[in-house]
Amino acid sequence: MSGKPRKRGRYPSGVLSFVALALMLFTAPFAHAAPTDRIIIRFKAGADGHPVRKEVDTQLEAEFSKIANRPLRLHRAMSGRGEFVLKLDKRLSDAEVEAIVNRLKTHSHLEYTAPDRIAFPQLTPNDPQFGSQWNLQAASGGINAPSAWDITTGSASIVVAVVDTGILPHADLAGRTVPGYDFVSDLNRSNDGNGRDADPTDPGDWVTAAEAASGPLVGCPVADSSWHGTRLAGVIAASGNNAQGIAGLNWASKILPVRAIGKCGGHTSDIVDAIRWAAGIPVAGVPDNANPARVINLSVSTEGVCDAAFQSAINDVTGIGAVVVAAAGNQGQNAANYTPASCQNVIAVGALDRNGGLTAYSNSGPQIAVSAPGGTSADAILSSSDSGTQSPTGDSAYIFTNGTSLAAAQVSGVVSLILSHNSSLSPAQVRDWIRNTAQPFTTNAASQGSYANCTQTLCGAGILNPYAVLAKATSVEIATPQVRGGLGQVIGLRSDATVWTWGEVGNPFPQQVPGLGGIVQVASGGYDSSYSLFPYSLALRAGGTVLAWGYNGAGQLGDGTTASRVNPIQVPGLTNVVSIAAAVHSLALKSDGTVWAWGANTAGKLGDGTTTERHAPVQLLGPGGVGFLSGVVAIAAGGVGSLALKSDGTVWAWGSNVYGGLGDGTTTNRTTPVQVLGPGGVGFLSGVVAIVAGNVHSLALKSDGTVWAWGNNSDGRLGDGTTTNRTTPVQVLGPGGVGFLSGVAGIAAGNSHSLVLKSDGTVWAWGSNSNRNLGDGTTANRSIPVQAQGLSNVIAVSAGFNSSVALASDGALRAWGYSSYGLGTGTSAADTVPPLVRVAYGGENFSLGLADPNMFAPLIEAPLGSVVISNPITLIGIGTNVPISITGGQYSVNGAAYTSAAGTVNEGD
Ligand SMILES: [Ca+2]
Ligand SMILES: [Ca+2]
Ligand SMILES: [Ca+2]
Question: In sequence order, what DSSP letters do the residues of 625-651 get, joined into one string?
Answer without folding.
Answer: G-SB--SEEEEEE-SSEEEEEETTS-E
